[in-house]
Amino acid sequence: MKSKINNSLYLLVILVRFDLSFHPGYCEPSCAKLHDPFRQWTMLVLPRVCQFFGGRARGNCPTNTINSALYERATHRIATCLTFTSRKEHHHQFIGCDEYPEVYDCIAGICCPTRGMTCIQPLNTGDKEREGEGEKERENRWWYNSASGQCLAFKYSGKGGNSNNFLSQMQCEAYCKGRCARGDPIDVTNSNENENYLCKIHDTDRMLCCPTPAFLCSSLGGVNVEKTTLKPYSPGSLRRGASSIQRWYWDTTDLNCKPFKYNGQGGNFNNFEDRKECATFCSSRLCLHGSPLRDPSENVQRCSATSLCPDTHECRHTVCCPKPATTCLQPLKSLDCEPAETVTRWMYSTEHGMCKSVLSSRCLQGDNQFDSLEECQTVCSSVQVQPKCPIGKAYKSLDGVVLRCSSLKPCPSSYECVYTGSVHACCPSREYTCNQMFSPGTTCGPSTHQRWYYDAMQNKCNQFEYQGCNGNDNNFATRMDCVETCQRDECPDGGAALVDSSNGRSIACEKNDDCPSTHTCTRQLYTNRTSCCPSRKWTCSHDASEGVSCGQPSKRFYFDPESETCKQFDYLGCAGNANSFASRVACYQFCQSASCSSSEIVYHPSNLDEPLDCSLKPCPRHFTCVRSVWDETKNVCCGSPNFGVCSSTQHPMVAFSTQQPMTCTPNAQVRGFMKCVCVSTAKSAQNRDAGAQRLVEFWREREHVL
What we know:
Blueprint: H1 7-17, E1 81-86, E2 91-96, E3 104-107, E4 110-113, H2 115-118, E5 139-145, E6 150-156, H3 169-176, E7 197-202, E8 206-211, H4 213-216, E9 237-238, E10 245-251, E11 256-262, E12 264-265, H5 275-282, E13 313-316, E14 319-322, H6 324-328, E15 333-334, E16 343-349, E17 354-360, E18 364-365, H7 373-380, E19 415-419, E20 424-428, H8 430-434, E21 442-443, E22 449-455, E23 460-466, E24 468-469, H9 479-486, E25 519-523, E26 530-534, H10 536-540, E27 548-560, E28 565-574, H11 584-591, E29 601-602, E30 623-627, E31 635-639, E32 669-671, E33 674-675, H12 681-705
Antiparallel strand pairs: 1-2, 3-4, 5-6, 7-8, 9-12, 10-11, 13-14, 15-18, 16-17, 19-20, 21-24, 22-23, 25-26, 27-28, 29-31, 30-31, 32-33
């Protein structure tokens, strides 16, 4: 049993025993599959760092020589120790090492940090040159970054430093990689009965029984100590002349990482270099799967009967933990970094609806990663892949199941049946979404987000701070998404009517001659007024404008009149001009049809031909021959498709930017001469999708030609 003894006593004993033929090895327990681990003391055990001792190496630690050794508290004396053999347990033990024998090993009479303690030490480049000393050439050394799992090079001064100091990358990796993520493995039999350790087979034939995160992040800090009173952290001991440094520990009461002053020696493994490393490691123990929510201050989000979690999480032991669906449907995020090493893990694939293997590394982040196929299947077996609606979220029953719709199973009021690519689901209608009241949501996550909502009273999209969870569907990533979904343009082809500066009202007109050449006299949407609205040609003649930065940037398309083609550009989120379309298809459909009236398109006899020149051939039924605004030597045929939602004698109004039929309230007057007619929900959605798809295919073929 380890205990502290009087220095003078064991110094004398060490002199007597110093010439013993054996020297303790420095290997952590490693065993063949399914065998109990034990402490190895022979000189011939792998890895090669175990063969560091003997002969001239006596009196040094395995890394950074004597600079790694423990010093007695507030002195310049190296702490010493004595190794002895336990007859009862038949393995070696030692006494000494000040108050911290649990994180030190006794090697040739001196106290050297265990491998677990060595590999979590921060980078220390060594002592600075004293004033008057010449500048020495620094040495190439390596240290292990426990947060990233990498061995990194640094320049060593040649003096001082700590034990996390290796002569080569190979030595560093052999010493620190492929072991417990933090702390030292247990070296006793029947370790599976110890709840503070978790035994797992490492690689193919090696088992390690490592401290659990709960044990490491407790006041014990992952070490077995016999003390009646414990502080929430261990400050360690201060070597004479040294200074304390700030480190972080996990407070099990507040479930939060807090700073403390570490004295540089001893202590335990509840000791992190920064708050992020502490929070990432210790918060993983709070939930059965995934990571708990965090507030804007990076603290764990607490919950109670009066402070509820968002609907993506559930309250577990006063902490908001992710529901299985939240964890399993979370996409993994790839970071721009060099992976130190890869391991095979398992993730739930929403595309395949099953658990798939994935090569994981520190560069792949996210909770949707599991150690085994069995664990992945256990957590994700009940997960239902969520359909992606064009707007908002699909309707769910009270037990959280997505409602499937059909002609026999219509959707609830304010929802419409939409094919989402995998299933028919009930998605919120555009009108229902845009008329929802503004909601900032509930706080979750480390920060808020800039989002946009539609104010139906002002017919305007406004920016707001989204708290991260819940809220409603009136919530858009960019201003353009909000505008295209909800905002009612006064003019059917987009843009705003000319305004009289004296009264702020749109200028009335009776014919095109009452307007400038860039505008046409057009009846406004939602009113019976006629005003001067921008012509399609004028809209499509603007140069591309990236706008100004706000919210999330996006890819848009503009029409180039010289080449008569649509080109992509980066839109920053706000301002700009109307020559900006959500897709290449919408851009072509709108601008190639600039000769036509609102909601009309030019006629093409086939997908591969130019628009029909009706000065040479007559237009088909329901199309009218007009002069082309892009080429005055040609005439084109203009007409209106019904998109499968109107009768053969009618056509719907089309939103200019998306070139899709506008939705409206059944039986309501959309314009002075337009009426919204309601048809079967499922049939309407299927017909509209089919009609729109025919038009999309037509223009996609046109893209290849143009």
